[in-house]
TrEMBL record:
Catalytic activity: Cleavage of hydrophobic, N-terminal signal or leader sequences from secreted and periplasmic proteins
Database matches in NCBIfam families: sigpep_I_bact
Superkingdom field: Bacteria
Organism the protein comes from: Hydrogeniiclostridium mannosilyticum
Protein name in the entry: Signal peptidase I
Gene from which this protein is expressed: lepB
Length: 195
């Protein structure tokens, strides 16, 4: 009579099973860590970056030392966006500013009333600053039309901001815009999405 052996009879000794299981677990953990690391590097190289705010030009909305996440994948600047600019005419370090107007739009500033006009309309900036604070004179004559491929930017803290009103920044070439600031992630007490 033929006797069939049970599956359990062919199992490996207990000690070998433990070693094989530990080695397999270690390999699986390493594989998961390497995959996660590659994903993080890809995301923060091509899709998002973390940038540190330096200076007072974007107060009260962004403080010096804030860390912001910047999205850069196929970004096209829009009025109202806060952007990171990697290079300007006279500055050799990145700056962070708000886009006021894009190519083809006309910008005018009434320094007596402290208001910015885009295409003849007074810009309502009440969502991010107090209206009527743009009173510092400019190095340029207004009105001016934003050339193709450029944007006009201003800091939210207008009295302390080097922006498109000054020769050291001027109109910003869109090729030098790293991306749009999306959220403050550090310090944790200031975590917020940027409007």
């Amino acid at each position: 009579m033929l006797a069939f052996r049970k599956k359990e009879d062919f199992s490996l000794p207990g000690e070998f099973k433990v070693k094989k299981s530990a080695a397999l677990n270690c390999f699986e953990w390493m594989e998961a860590l390497v995959t996660a690391l590659i994903a993080v590097v890809f995301i923060f190289t091509f899709l998002f970056r973390v940038v540190s705010v330096s200076g007072q030009s974007m107060e009260p909305n962004l403080q010096s030392g804030d860390r912001v996440v910047v999205s850069s994948y196929f970004y096209n600047p829009q009025p109202g966006d806060i952007v990171v600019i990697t290079r300007t005419v006279g500055l050799d370090q990145p700056i962070i500013k708000r886009v006021i107007a894009t190519e083809g739009q006309e910008v005018d500033i009434d320094f007596d009333k402290g208001v910015v006009l885009v295409d003849g309309e007074v810009l309502d900036e009440s969502a991010y600053i107090e209206n009527g604070i743009t009173t510092q004179r400019s190095d340029f004559e207004f009105p001016m039309t934003v050339p193709e491929g450029y944007v006009f930017v201003l800091g939210d803290n207008r009295p302390r901001s080097a922006d498109s009103r000054s020769r050291e920044v001027g109109m910003v070439d869109k090729r030098y815009i790293l991306g749009k600031a999306e959220m403050v992630i550090f310090p944790f007490s200031r975590f917020q999405f940027i409007a």
